[in-house]
Specification:
By secondary structure, the protein is α+β, with helices and mostly antiparallel strands. The protein folds into 2 domains: 268 residues, Aminopeptidase (3-Layer(aba) Sandwich), CATH 3.40.630.10; 118 residues, Alpha-Beta Plaits (2-Layer Sandwich), CATH 3.30.70. The protein contains 11 helices and 19 strands. A hairpin with a 7-residue loop joins strand 18 and strand 19. Helix 3 packs across helix 5. The two termini are 26 Å apart. 51% of the residues are buried.
Length: 401
């Protein structure tokens, strides 16, 4: 089902911004509480695939805020709705629960001068905290929208989580959302409207193996890995649309004096164009088969087998800059005194963009750095501007009642 049409203009965005003056003031007054929530969430372990504890905390908060139909779906996403005055297709606001850090990681947040330092404090403690702040402010009374707003804390956004939560949520939605806004990390200038797609592969070669002296001459699975790696590295890649392909991991064998029965490599392919991902998917499979055949042909014994497995698949695409949601986001950025920047990234917004739903990803205010490291930091520099920007974009998309 196609997404419902949105048509906010620059004047509509400016009107919403002006009408939300009181809401912006209230959010500014609650700034310290938003940051406190950010710290609390960051200190609850939520490695990809194990987000339950953090999800329960968010679910309790959703219920306290009076959201309707608070639930955890089959994927583990936590969902709550603020009903609209009129109804229609909802606007989705999402922020991911998971982090890249293993459960045993020390998650205590400490203050270092003006900065808060701790794993996940920005990505995505900030996004979650601001999503909750918006859910509190869009309360159906002081701030009421015509369309319903679904607030979704998603699982499996990072790494091999492969956007699992977002994929499940949008695939199972009863009605295609009118728009989606992902809150991810800090910042108040970037508007991600191009979804960087990726396809990740594990290529496995298998053969008879044997003793490195006595069985020498049988095909060597790790040799095939080397052939495939060299051929993949030599593939010409387009500059436009920008495309990358890299072998990230290789492995195989059990001993230095044994011919490996198995060898494998893992490949990361990225592009903003679906057709390019498909093209290099085919190229990779041809290279893998050719590597197995080349190693088998120069040896004796049973030939190598080759298996190509997709271990990650993030959709790509673009919401045109003239689309209403993007124009509204750019205008809201200017209205809070920032210079907007159109950007490309891989976020939960990839999923709705890939399904033809207008979607963007934005930072949730403040400044941050060293993401995905234990030294990750967040500085609440004009953090309220990012919150005000997010509120304006969401309310404009959901139409102020």
């Amino acid at each position: 089902m196609p997404a419902a049409s949105l048509s906010p203009s620059r004047s509509a965005t400016a009107h919403a911004f002006q009408a939300l003056a009181g809401a912006r003031a209230r959010l500014a007054d609650r700034d310290a509480a938003v940051v406190a929530t950010q710290v609390t969430l960051s200190e609850i372990a939520a490695p990809t695939g194990d987000e339950t504890a953090r999800g329960r905390w968010v679910a309790r908060r959703f219920a306290e805020l009076g959201l309707a139909g608070v639930r955890t779906d089959a994927a583990g996403n936590v969902i709550g709705r603020r009903q609209g005055a009129v109804g229609g297709a909802p606007v989705v606001v999402c922020a991911h629960l998971d982090t890249v850090f293993p459960r045993e990681t020390a998650l205590g947040v400490r203050r270092v001068r003006r900065r808060l330092v701790g794993p996940g404090i920005g990505d995505n403690g900030r996004g979650l905290a601001v999503m909750l702040a918006l859910a509190e402010e869009i309360d159906g009374r002081q701030v009421r929208t015509r369309r319903p707003v679904d607030f979704v804390a998603t699982v499996g956004e990072e790494g091999l989580g492969d956007l699992r939560g977002a994929k499940h949520f949008f695939a199972s939605a009863e009605e295609a959302p009118a728009a989606a806004i992902a809150l991810d990390g800090a910042g108040d200038e970037r508007v991600v409207h191009r979804a960087l797609g990726s396809r990740r592969f594990r290529v496995t070669f298998r053969g008879a193996g044997g003793h490195s002296w006595a069985a020498f001459g049988v095909p060597n699975a790790v040799h095939a890995v080397g052939i495939a790696t060299a051929q993949l590295a030599a593939l010409p890649l387009p500059r436009e649309p920008r495309t990358t392909l890299s072998v990230g991991r290789v492995g195989g064998g059990m001993s230095v004096n044994a011919i490996p029965e198995e060898g494998w490599l893992e490949v990361d392919l990225r592009s903003t164009a679906p057709a390019v991902l498909e093209r290099y998917d085919r190229e990779l499979r041809l290279v893998a088969r050719a590597a197995a055949a080349e190693e088998s042909a120069r040896r004796g014994g049973p030939p190598l087998t080759c298996r190509v497995e997709v271990i990650g698949d993030r959709p790509c695409g673009e919401v045109p800059a003239h689309e209403a949601l993007v124009r509204s986001a750019l205008e809201a950025t200017r209205l809070v005194g920032r210079d907007p920047e159109l950007a490309t990234a891989s976020t939960d917004a990839n999923v709705p963009i890939g399904r033809g739903i207008p979607a963007i990803a934005i930072g949730a205010g403040g400044r941050g750095g060293d993401a995905h490291t234990p030294a990750e930091w967040f500085e609440n520099a004009d953090g309220t501007l990012g919150v005000a920007r997010a509120l304006t974009i969401v309310v404009c998309a959901a139409e102020l009642a």
